[in-house]
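Database export, one record per block. Field names are fixed; values are copied verbatim from the stored entry.
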Amino acid sequence: MSPETTQQAFALAFEHHRAGRWAQAEALYRQILAAQPEHAEAWHFLGVIAIQAGQPDRALPLIRQALALQPDNPAAHTNLGEACRRLGRVDEAIAHFRRSCEMKPRSPEAHYNLGTALSEAGQREEAVTALRRALELRPDYPEACNNLGNVLQALDRSEEAVAEFHRALQLQPQMPEAHNNLAAAHAKLGQWREAAAEYQRALALRPDYPDARYNLANALRDCGRLDEAIEEYGRVLQQAPRSADALCNLGVALSNRGQAGEGMVYFKKAIDAETSAPRYLSNLIYALQFLPDGGGARMREEKTLWNRRFVAPLRSTWARFENVPDPRRRLRIGYVSPSFHANAVAFFLVPLLEAHDHGSCEVYCYASVRRPDAVTARLRKCADGWRDVRTWSDAQLAECIRRDGIDILVDLAMHAGDNRLALFAHKPAPVQVSWLAYPGSTGMEAIDYRLTDACLEPPGEAVEAPGEKLDAFGEKPVRLPDAWCCYEPIEEFPPVGPLPAMTRGGVTFGSLNQFNKINEDLLRCWAKLLAAVTDSRLVMICPEGQAQARTREVFAARGITPERIECIAQRPWREYAELFTKIDIALDAFPHNGMTTTCHTLWMGVPVVTRTGATPVSRAGSSLLHAVGLPEWVANDEEQYVRIATDWAADLPRLAELRGSLRDRMQASPLMDAPRFASNVEAAYRGMWQSWCAEHPSSIP
């Protein structure tokens, strides 16, 4: 083949290649190489065809041969880098992309490719630099904007990421990936409504976009649009019927809509679909508490299964501890939680951590925080050691805790969302404790103690299931004096206003608890109360759609007309806090009492009538009311619950007097005495440590 013929053949091959006729192009490239083995571009483009055909392993020797013949070909370095990247050989890819940038420093594509590979290698700050350089060279580069947004998102710089995704969409509005990524950035910022809108835009452009559909369902759930969320989860499961995440989150959405029993079905399906992930079984255990029977005997069965699957296999790996068994020395206390940020748990965590005696305790926080905020910064100042561990494996975190020499490790999440109970199964500290997420037991053999109090678990009375003592199952209870928690109103609340009934002409009852705590038995009880109190009404948190319709049906069936029930959907904090000013008497949920909500309610001058049961979560209200000196508001059964509420509703002057004094009463009570509470907790830790030292004696006098 003459040089002229070779040139003509290559031009024809390249034309076939650009038109997507790869077979014809490859045949011509090979004919050229048969006649002229040193034709570098033929080798190069054979490799490109292999990459395009999804065979990057076949591309490597072809493009390497091209570079051996023509070392200074930037395009060949770029394509060899891409083949390496697709094979997971990211370091090699980066080296080739860097070489391409050196040869062609004003190529935006070269810097884009380098930034993409650097991001995949976890070198995100360098990736930002490379992608910003690509955009300097080519401002109208939507793919670079999109990838830069992804890198910024991974660096927890979500607001900057949002700006880059918007920039990408200004350049290319029909880009479903950018809409999906923008939605994810909004979700990370807690902007669920904005996230849902962007996921919907992504799906309008690409209906078969499974990630966007699943994420849309999550966003709809998190912004309270439960009916729509449940429909979207159903569509996800049509395509992926064994998706454990979708099954589990559908269970959560149903539970949040007040259908805890139906939710259980999907929690169980998620567990069956993914037996090796502890979070699905944890979700089931946590959700059982919301059933009318509080979980019953099934609670123990599921906790036993959790231990068998996730603790027993690790028991033989538990290490011997090198902690010095001195009962008097300064203790290293470690707290593990995803909740070191503004959320329900923080109202109890802030007062303890800020009141700790650092002379006797060295405090470490192991934080798995998705969205750090001002509360995160406040809590961080309380710690002698702070570790951001959200991306760490349980094994990595366990090793870190051992290196830190933690004496007492405290789990603050229990079986609630984003928990790290699997970490505790590694037994990284000599003494392990559960506390705070909710009253009760994890049932985990690797955790030694749980903090509680005598109201939550009266000695000899508390039961996990009929006939089974809590003390005989899971952690050993350590009953704190006064109360098991301490509250501080860390958010801005409105002032306590006058009693609404004085001007409205009738009593307003209220429940601002999450709707997953509400069940039909409770609604029927409230209907009985409304029937007994003339001109009374009820304000309650209830999601829009089916949940509100079913709730109104329960009341209507008992003669309570619709205008007496005000169902309020999820709303921002300031609007939520204002709702307390409309309520005269609050009604606690049962069997899962309110905790943070009850404290907010009392702080706003609104007394709460509660009912006790057999499990710790059904005694939370009793614990709080005893702590503030209001035991007369605690009922033991439904009849007493209704009677307490009706008696107080009939005496408005007395109710108004209580409202005006309740905030001062709270501040003077053990429930808001942080130094006292911290001292009680530290004494409990010291007792646990002394017990461990007694079991592990040393020569220390």
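Remark 1: The longest helix spans residues 674-695.
Remark 2: The CA atoms of residues 354 and 382 lie 6 Å apart.
End of record.
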